[in-house]
Design goal:
The chain is an alpha/beta fold. The protein contains 23 helices and 16 strands. Helix 8 links the parallel strand 8 and strand 9.
């Protein structure tokens, strides 16, 4: 039979022999040691002088050690005296006998004295050490205070010199990130406001000789008589930082991080009641920011993301395809869910999504009345069981400003969602190519999109920051010349410089895998309202376009040569009901050309010298002018086809997008050049401006 040894537990008090002596144990050890030595020495005839010699050596040794430890004088004296008194008693006891009442009584008295002296010196040493630490802290505080006083005095003089305002700095706080500091200043009586200092931000920054990309910005203080001035001393905007690799859970209530300020602290967007507007020209990092926003929404436990991108769904495909194709697996080998809940890349799918959102909002209003009453609120309590729906619409602001018939239908639905769905937890994030009057002209957008981002990348064309951030002063595009940098303002944080993290493609795949089990499911009431349109959103017949990577027959380089003006290149094979009015007009114009006129040869081609064009025909070489680009030639054809009514840059860009991939910004540049050289005439101002070919301009027709 196997036996096991049991460990015997010690009984009685446990003594820690490695612990040091305290006042009581030290005195007891000294007296018992002296008594033992005296008794042994008396019994063996030990010379009494030896005890005195040992005591003197002990006193000397403790004094040397105490000096090295920088003990106080009273501590050194107490310890030396203890050794000498103990040695003196031992010497006397060895001579006269240690077992007499006189010897024992005097030893006990010595023990009590040694204990009391040791306790007193220990307390003194503790107080002395605490005082030394406090003195060091006072010295550090004095040095910091002196530095802060110098900073405060410097900025008082600077504000007086630049702004003609005498302020009193009541506090200077250095940022933990080491990239700057903040001044809390009191404004003088007489009606001075913080806005006057904010308006002089560029001059203050220049006067302070701050590095490029660093600013001195003013914002409201604790009350209207105070101002906070944030001074950046390190330009963090020029650094590219990748999206944080920690993909922990987020919530609509905690906010979604979109980037970081100049003080290196992250800034969050709170989208429970607010919509968002993101503008940025080509090359400013807008697409990267869209992916960054989608990453934050994917990490949220109480949010579902629906994406509309009519540019072949490019904004949402990286979040969908890896999951649908089975390229990514979870830790246990199971398939993962897409990073977004729904993707619309076509007009029909976008209309279906927006109709579904409207039905969900209305059904939630009816189905959750009891829940709203129990919580005594008119805002639907958002949670993982009742998730918020975020509609991310790439270039959605352009849809709202478009004059195209189909786009107007989408715009009406988008505005309806924005108007009716705030309380029921459906909000939108719209993007645009620029901060222009056409984008910000809609009152609904200005009122609801309080979270605003303007990525500049140094681009000044079409970036009216005063319209994007009304009331904010001192914002200049040249302050953020870096890709991904710009300005961000929220109801909780005034408009100021910020930069978006760089999110890498492999991080998107990591986030899809990490957050697959975190995505909520649409609540029962909302799912019932959404119906089959939502339930079958990932069916093969509705996602075929996502997997169709076959290049088009007329892709550049795969079709016939397009030297010269090839009008057949502008033809579209789409059904007539899916063609915009501008494109229908263009088709009619091409048909008229083919039926009634002869097309002139390319003036730059080999046939130009063989046969001149017929005098009675339509010489299309007039459309070429000095343009060498087929896209520009096609744009001129669209402009000419528009007739006396004229057209705009957006309509021309849409007509050429499929064939040439031309965007609105490019067309705007062409139109400006044509107005300058007389090829086109600008009619109207602002959002009603149209461009008319010179052949159809009123002045030209009058001359003819």
């Amino acid at each position: 039979m196997a036996t096991t040894a049991t460990k015997q537990q010690p009984s009685g008090p446990v003594l820690d022999w490695s612990a040091g002596h305290g006042p009581v144990t030290g005195a007891l050890s000294a007296t018992t040691g002296a008594f033992a030595v005296a008794t042994t020495g008396a019994a063996t005839g030990m010379p009494p002088g030896w005890a005195m010699a040992v005591g003197a050596a002990g006193a000397l040794g403790h004094t040397v050690v105490g000096l090295r430890l920088r003990n106080a004088g009273r501590t050194l004296a107490t310890r030396a005296a203890s050794w000498l008194v103990g040695a003196g008693w031992t010497t006397w006891a060895m001579t006269h006998g240690p077992l007499t009442w006189a010897a024992l009584g005097s030893l006990a008295t010595i023990g009590v004295g040694i204990g009391a002296a040791a306790r007193s010196t220990a307390l003194y040493e503790e107080a002395r050490e605490e005082e030394a630490i406090a003195a060091e802290q006072r010295q550090i505080a004095a040095e910091l205070s002196a530095e802060r006083r110098a900073i405060a005095a410097e900025w008082v003089d600077r504000i007086q010199r630049v702004c003609s305002i005498t302020v009193r700095v009541v506090g200077v706080e250095k940022w933990e990130t080491g990239t700057g500091y903040s001044l809390d200043a009191e404004l003088p009586p007489g009606g001075a406001t913080w806005n006057k200092i904010a308006a002089e931000s560029p001059r203050l920054s220049a006067d302070a000789r701050l590095p490029h990309g660093c600013t001195a910005t003013a914002s409201p203080g604790i009350h209207q008589g105070r101002v906070i001035i944030d001074v950046t001393t390190v330009n963090v905007l020029e650094q590219e930082r990748t999206y944080p690799a920690e993909y922990g859970p987020l919530s609509v209530h905690t906010g979604i991080p979109w980037g970081y300020r100049t003080n290196a602290e992250e800034i969050r967007a709170y989208l429970r009641e607010q919509c968002a507007l993101v503008v940025g020209p080509t090359g400013s990092g807008k697409t990267n920011l869209v992916h960054l926003i989608l990453a934050g929404l994917a990490r949220a436990e109480d949010m579902l993301t629906w994406v509309i991108d009519l540019n072949a769904g490019s904004a949402g495909l990286p979040w969908v395809l890896p999951a649908l194709s089975g390229e990514i697996k979870s830790g246990d080998g199971k398939a993962v869910r897409p990073g977004i809940d729904w993707l619309a890349g076509t007009f029909d799918e976008a209309m279906t999504m927006l109709d579904t959102a409207v039905r969900v909002a209305k059904q939630r209003k009816m189905g959750y009345q009891d829940l709203l009453a129990r919580h005594n609120t008119d805002l639907l309590p958002i949670s993982p069981k009742i998730p918020q729906i975020m509609l991310v619409i790439d270039e959605g602001a352009e849809i709202l400003a478009s004059g195209d018939r189909d786009m107007r239908k989408l715009a009406e639905k988008i505005l309806e969602v924005i108007r009716i769905a705030r309380a029921m937890g459906i909000r939108t994030v719209l993007t645009a190519l620029g901060a222009t009057g056409s984008v910000l002209g809609n009152l609904m957008i200005r009122r609801e999109a309080k979270v605003r981002v303007a990525l500049t990348g140094g681009e000044t064309e079409g970036m009216d920051l005063s319209k994007m951030f009304p009331g904010s002063r001192g914002l200049r595009v040249e302050q953020a010349p870096y890709k991904g940098a710009g300005f961000m303002g929220t109801p909780e944080s005034p408009a100021a410089l910020f930069k978006a993290w760089r999110i890498l493609p492999n991080q998107i795949r990591e986030i899809i895998a990490a957050t697959s089990d975190r995505h909520p499911v649409l609540d029962e009431i909302s799912a019932k309202a959404a119906g089959p349109a939502y339930a079958r959103r990932w069916d093969a017949d509705r996602t075929t376009w996502m997997r169709d990577h076959t290049p088009a027959d007329d892709a550049p380089g795969t079709g016939p040569s397009r030297e010269g003006l090839n009008l057949s290149a502008l033809r579209s094979e789409r059904p007539a009901e899916q063609v915009s009015p501008e494109e229908q007009m263009l088709r009619q114009f091409r048909a008229q050309i083919d039926a009634e006129f002869a097309t002139a040869a390319d003036p730059h081609g080999p046939a130009a010298e063989e046969a001149p064009p017929r005098s009675g025909g339509l010489n299309l070489s007039a459309l070429r002018g000095e343009q060498d680009s087929p896209a520009q030639q096609a744009a001129l054809a669209v402009l000419l086809a528009a007739g006396a009514e004229g057209t705009g840059a957006s309509a021309i860009a849409r007509a050429l997008a499929d064939e040439y991939g031309t965007n609105r910004q490019t067309v705007v540049g062409w139109l400006k050049a044509w107005v300058q050289d007389g090829t086109a005439v600008r009619v109207g101002e602002g959002t009603k401006a149209r461009y008319v070919h010179r052949r159809h301009a009123p002045e030209t027709r009058a001359e003819e």
